[in-house]
Every structure is written in C-alpha cells, then in structure tokens.
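tool_call: predict_structure(chain=1)
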Amino acid sequence: MYVAVKGGEKAIDAAHAWLAEERRGPEDVAELSVDQIKGQLKLAVNRVMAEGSLYDPDLAALAIKQARGDLIEAIFLIRAYRTTLPRFGGSEPVDTEEMACDRRVSATFKDAPGGQVLGPTFDYTHRLLDFKLAADGEAPSAPERAETPESKPHIMSFLDREDLIQPEPEGAETPPDLTREPLELPAERPLRLQSLTRGDEGFILGMAYSTQRGYARNHAFVAELRIGACAVEMDIPELGFAIEVGEVELTECETVNQFQGSKTEPPQFTRGYGLVFGMSERKAISMALVDRALRWKELGEDNVGAPAQDEEFVLYHADNIQATGFLEHIKLPHYVDFQSELELIRKLRREAMGRRAHKEAAE
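tool_result:
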C-alpha cells in the first residue's frame, strides 16, 4: 500500500534545485554542451538511442546531460518523450546489404567479397590510459582513401548457396510492435528480437557470456559484423512508391552456429541475429548469441536448463527501465506496509516468549 506524503513539497523543490546545481558542476569550468556529448560521447548516445527505441542523437545527448551521465535515467527520459510523438506510419525494411560500411569484419572468411574494414575500433588498442588526452591535445587525423563502389554482400549468402545454413522463412508482413503492445509469451522471434535490441546491454552481455561458458552449448562464430549508414524508405500511398526519408546508423551482427541436425533436418549451420541503433557492436554480438539460444525449441534442440534458453526469464528481465522502476520503488514510503509487518513480528515474539516462559515454569 502507498500513502500520500504531505509537507514535503518544499523539500522536493529544494532537491530539484540541488540536482540542477550538481548537474551544472563548478561554474569556473565550461558547461558541457549537447553538441559535445553528441560528438565526443557517441557510444553513450548510441546506447541511449538503442535502448530508448528512438533514433535521435540530439535528444539522446540532451537526455544524457539532463541525467548527469546516468544512461538508464537518460533512456527513461527518451522513452517517456517518445510516447508524446505522433506516429505517421511505418518504414520499409532497411536493406543492410546496401549499408555504407564504416566497419565490416568477418571471423569466418578472410577474403570476403568487398573486403574487410576495421573502422574505428578498440580491438587492437593496448588498453593503456592515454594521458595526452588530459593535456587537451589536438586529435590526430586519420588517413583517408577514396571509397570503393564494390558491393559488400552478406557473408551468410555464400553458405546459403550450398544449403549449409538453415534458411530463414519469411515473417509476417507487419510484425507486432513491442512499443505499442505488451509482451506476451510465448513470443515469436520478431518480438524476441525487439525485446533484445532494447534490452539492457549489461544483462544481454551476461546472458550471451553464459552461453559461451557452456550454459546452452552455444559455440558461435561471428560470420559478419557491419556498422554503417542505411537508407530509410517509407511508402507514400499518394505517390504509389517508396521514397527515402533519411538514414540511420546501424550495427548488424550475424553469428553462425553448429547444428547437429534433427529427425527432419540434415546437419547444417544456424544463425543468430543482432541489429542495434548506432555503433553498438558488443550489444549486437550479445544479442545474436542470446537470439540463437532462445531458438532451441524451433530448431528441435534439447532444453538443457540454461538461463539464456528460458524465454520468460530473459525477456521479462532484460528491460532496464522496468527493472529500475521495480527496484527503486522500495525506497519510496511504505509506512503502512512496514507498520503491519512490525506489529506482526511483535505479536509473534510475544507468543514465542510466552511459550518459552511457560515451558521454563513447567520445568
């Protein structure tokens, strides 16, 4: 039970003022601008957009500033704002094969058609603190070269030609929208993927890591990881065809997994899939591993009791906004609840002490 707390309005106003003061920080230090956050803390901005289900770098940067760098709070702000926006329609499915790749790597084929592009990655850094960054030095210029028009087909297409990868059936023309309808179990794969892509990165990473450590027997290779801009098209009924309305930066990951076959299917590879807003490769890879673990039933595999195979456990606990809300509500007033618990404990203690005294007197 929750009860109204009276007389705290002035305290709440003062807390808000103090919060604003703490957010600003020392006034002798230049204020952090939204453009600085958007341009220099891009990975944080990407996470807020992905888990907030809203692609808008400016708003994500503003939310990070307002939340004092608390990304979950920033995600909450973005989701709340998203609910106020009008919905004009749905876009056409994006064609990731036509992505203008800033990064494209494969762990399965060295000489992939279209080449591999390392892009801006931490993979080969030494993880040593660079104190030159504290000296406000100028950023070095990266070497440039002319972009080649060579196409970059999906790696999985080469396995598909030999029927070595399980074919993916066509899904519903309009999949259910998790942002407009509550999650219901059992969930089809499109709904599971929506839940994973907006789920908490740390939780999804932990689930994915568990599959690699033997909980689900899920040994995967990254067939392809690509990051870049994709055109977004929308069908205009008055025109009778789709037009490009913008572009979004996406991270796409496809993993290839072993499959021993079943009574109806010969041995072949299967895939896990991850697609996330922005440059979020850790999240995309994690998503692909968990997606594959959740497919055990449709692939006719055994449920070995791994947490990542439990659809209810994964999908109902991946959302950091729901988790934060339920966790933090216990610090709000529960005076009536606690008083009832307190009276119960006092009553039980009195009864226990009475029985003890009666027993000692009888002895």
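agent: Residues 335-362 form the longest helix (28 residues). Proceeding to next step.
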